[in-house]
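Exercise 7b. Backbone tokens:
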């Protein structure tokens, strides 16, 4: 089994501020850092560091070569990362002293993905391989439909949530991974019951911030608490969780244990600044879990 993460690659421009700037306000940044990022890249790094055999597919411009190298250094197969004549996607990120963040994303090369590129990549994968994708590239509907037609297991992280991602046919998705805000975009009330009724085939993993996470499908529900740590930067917490929970489930862990493992990885990620650079290695997560079990 192979894991294909088809998603965004961004250059992150990170500014450390006392608090997130408000409309009409100008504020001074105490620090500036240029990082590798993008939800797709972060999730590929998390999958690789969790122990998955992961391939990344996506597009960058000439200015994004270091993003491809970042993936390769993390153990991701980058043969499907294509360089095109467009600027690399980028994000402007404010990180407040409280560890909260605010992000503006420019799609760039990520928005040049088309049906032809999708078909070219998916021709290299087989039934029961895993596809993970998000909503930071174009061609999402084509990708989900084509992957399901091949019999791949489709994991969708509908982030950022908007009307376009809401149009994706969830009958073609095997597992939905999302947070509370994204969940409200589907059903504002009684989310779990509404999802089970509308999409009985679907497994859902819902992250609840400091309240932990929950997994549910038509037959079972599992929960895990969040780990308490001193947070520095929450930028890649969700992406870290996503990569780790998919790997854990693919390895045969129960939903409860997979949630706990992913929560530990996310907790470690928020104790460091940056996106991909903050994602912990598998052995660090193992040690963290051993310590918290004492």
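Sequence design result:
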């Amino acid at each position: 089994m192979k894991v294909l993460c088809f998603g965004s690659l961004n250059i992150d421009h990170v500014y450390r501020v006392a608090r997130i700037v408000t409309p009409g306000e100008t504020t001074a940044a105490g620090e500036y850092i240029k990082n590798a990022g993008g939800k797709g890249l972060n999730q590929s790094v998390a999958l690789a560091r969790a122990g998955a055999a992961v391939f990344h597919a996506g597009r960058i411009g000439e200015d994004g070569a270091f993003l491809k190298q970042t993936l390769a250094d993390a153990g991701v197969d980058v043969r499907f990362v294509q360089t095109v004549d467009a600027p690399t996607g980028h994000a402007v990120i404010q990180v407040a002293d409280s560890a909260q963040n605010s992000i503006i994303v420019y799609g760039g090369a990520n928005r040049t993905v088309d049906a032809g590129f999708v078909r070219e990549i998916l021709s290299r994968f087989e039934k029961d391989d895993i596809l993970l994708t998000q909503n930071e590239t174009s061609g999402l509907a084509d990708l989900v439909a084509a992957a399901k037609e091949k019999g791949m297991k489709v994991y969708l992280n509908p982030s950022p949530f908007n009307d376009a991602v809401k149009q994706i046919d969830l009958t073609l998705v095997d597992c939905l991974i999302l947070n509370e805000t994204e969940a409200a975009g589907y059903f504002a009330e009684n989310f779990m019951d509404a999802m089970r009724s509308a999409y009985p085939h679907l497994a859902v993993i819902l992250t609840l911030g400091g309240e932990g996470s929950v997994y549910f499908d038509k037959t079972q529900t599992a929960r895990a608490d969040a780990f308490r740590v001193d947070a520095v930067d929450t930028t890649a917490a969700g992406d870290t969780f996503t990569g780790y929970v998919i790997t854990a489930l693919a390895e045969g862990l129960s939903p409860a244990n997979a949630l706990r493992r992913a929560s530990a990885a996310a907790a470690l990620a928020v104790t460091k600044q940056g996106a991909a650079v903050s994602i912990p290695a598998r052995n660090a997560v193992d040690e963290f879990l051993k310590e918290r079990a004492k």
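Instructor comment: The mean pLDDT is 96. Residues 3-9+37-88+110-292 form a domain with the UDP-N-acetylmuramoyl-L-alanine:D-glutamate ligase fold (CATH 3.40.1190.20).
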